[in-house]
Amino acid sequence: NYYAIIMAGGIGSRFWPISRTSHPKQFIDILGTGKTLIQNTYERFLKICPKENIYVVTNEIYTDLVKTQLPDMTDAQILTEPVMRNTAPCVAYGCYKIESLNPDAVIVVAPSDHLILNEAGFIESIEASLKTAEEHKCLVTLGIMPSRPDTGYGYIQYNEEVIDDKFHKVKTFTEKPTLEIAKTFIQSGDFLWNAGIFIWSAKAIVSAFDKYLPDMHEIFAEARSVYNSDNEKLHVHNAYQRCTNISIDYGIMEKADNVYVLPSEFGWSDLGTWASVYQLVEKDYVGNAVIPAEKVIMYDSSNCMVNVPDDKLVILKGLHDYIVVESNNTLLICPKEDEQNVKQVVADVKQKF
Ligand code: GDD
Ligand code: MG
User: Fold this and answer.
1) pLDDT tens digits along 96-123
2) Which of the listed residues 6, 7, 28 should we mutate to test ligand 1's pocket, taking the one with most ligand atoms within 8 A of CB?
3) How confident is the model at residue 181 (pLDDT cuts 50, 70, 90)?
4) CA of 97 to the centre of ligand 2 (A)
5) Which residue CA neighbors atom 21 of ligand 1 most closely?
6) Is-cis flag, bond preceding 292, omega within 30?
7) What is the pLDDT of residues 245-278, one digit of tens each?
8) Relative to the CA of 24, which ligand 1 atom is closest?
């Protein structure tokens, strides 16, 4: 009864210009491991559920990338979206479809673009969560010990109350707080980062949609008769036009009252920003991380994250704590601490060019 849904329709805009709308981060081998992030994600789930129970939800413009990178997946396992509406419709489509196939399904929903260093620890956490979600009909999320007041994450405050020894009842869930609020969360010490990996039974998530996003519930429940038929694609594509643009975090996790968190540690990084890549890669004695290093010359510069084409000669002098990234004939130079704003930059650029 175990299923997995890989969410792979985001554009990873903070990694711009390396990650582009036409080729986002999940389809890139960002750390140079020989496999792309979505390939690593898929392989992790092969160890958790049967391969025919793994689904990918992605935008139709990425269908070919998914097929090429995950050649074992059948067309029926690749669910396509005609427009980007964030993760709530993506979760609904995947979960309602699986529910129509198997009402007793228990599903893990995960991003396609994370790094997980301790795979055994990850599998253990997911398997325990699948059992708890099945038995208690609750919504489970994985929580990571936070290390800085990052405004790109959801923050989970939890109670002492536990079920199955280690799943804590969630008191509050705050998606992407302001820096000021994130700082108070970190200081108070009883918050975890939301890893963005969710585990629930099909029934539990359907009733959460019914309660908190009733319009979306109606759209995807109405489609029950077409899932797994020839009409699925056409019908679902029309349905998407009626969906609001909202993430599962704002739409459901912030509101639901039956959420439990499993504090987890498995070498997790969402590789969400250059700063997170910077932390993981090798640095020289003054803290510069340069990929690739052949033709980059640095004088009196420190703590920079440099990623440029390998044939590019780059000279930096007197630069500290900067990101310097070039790809696709586009160059970005930005202080490391400002990188959350790259999303806005990308939006501006798109409007202008
Ligand atoms: N199919 C589909 N359609 N997938 C999408 C869409 C969409 O419209 N939008 C995003 N995704 C995919 C992304 O590709 C990624 O794999 C995953 O869904 C999560 O989306 P992000 O856009 O990366 O979310 P986030 O990083 O800002 O925030 C989430 O993850 C954080 C941890 O990394 C939230 O769950 C936070 O609470 C959490 O802390
Ligand atoms: Mg993310």
Assistant:
1) 999 999 999 999 999 999 999 899 999 9
2) 7
3) very high
4) 24
5) 10
6) yes
7) 999 999 999 999 999 999 999 999 988 778 888 8
8) 14
Gap between the Cα atoms of 283 and 281, Å rounded: 6
Residue 184 CB contacts under 8 Å (≥ 6 apart), including other chains: none
Return the residue whose CA atom lies nearest to atom 29 of ligand 1.
Answer: 196
Answer whether 296 contacts ligand 1 (Cβ < 6 A). no
Ligand 1 within 6 A of CB of 182: no
Res 32: pLDDT: 66
CA torsion angle 245 193 148 326 (round to 10): -50
- Per-residue pLDDT tens digits for 29-62: 777 677 999 999 999 999 999 999 999 999 999 9
Please give the number of the atom of ligand 1 that sits closest to the Cα of 193.
Answer: 39
Peptide bond into 71 cis (omega under 30): no
Q: Is the CB of 192 under 6 A from ligand 1?
A: no
Cα distances from 23 to residues 17, 114, 290, 340, in angstroms, run 10, 16, 22, 20
28 neighbors 37 (Cβ within 8 angstroms): yes
ipTM score above 0.90: yes
